Amino acid sequence: MVGDGAVTQAEQALANPKRALGAYSNRPERVLKVNVYLTDIEDRRRINPARHAFWGNAYPASPLVQVGASAHPKAAVEIELMAAVQA
């Protein structure tokens, strides 16, 4: 777990798959869908810069949902990606 807030956690949650996609010479444009779960819906505007830095203006399908709690007590955000990669 990195940081105490949604912004730091979202930046890290997007850095991890970006690195994994890079291992296959793929780009964030290969992401087909991303699900974002926030414990506080007001964090949506705070994490948008991290999302924009990852995709620019080409967002994939992206449901964003507020949840009552996360599996980890300090997790403010969880991000799940589905991507099509070329091995």
Protein model, in words:
With 87 residues, the chain is of the alpha+beta class. The chain is built from two helices and three strands, in the order αβαββ. The chain has a three-stranded mixed beta sheet, with helices on one face.
- CATH-defined superfamily: RutC-like
SS-based class: alpha+beta
Return the CATH class. Alpha Beta
CATH domain fold name: 60s Ribosomal Protein L30, Chain: A
Task: Summarize, please.
With 87 residues, the protein is of the alpha+beta class. The protein has one domain (6-83): 2-Layer Sandwich (60s Ribosomal Protein L30, Chain: A). The protein has helices at 6-23, 44-55, and strands at 31-38, 64-66, 77-83.
Write the layout of secondary structure elements.
Blueprint: H1 6-23, E1 31-38, H2 44-55, E2 64-66, E3 77-83
Parallel strand pairs: 1-2
Antiparallel strand pairs: 1-3
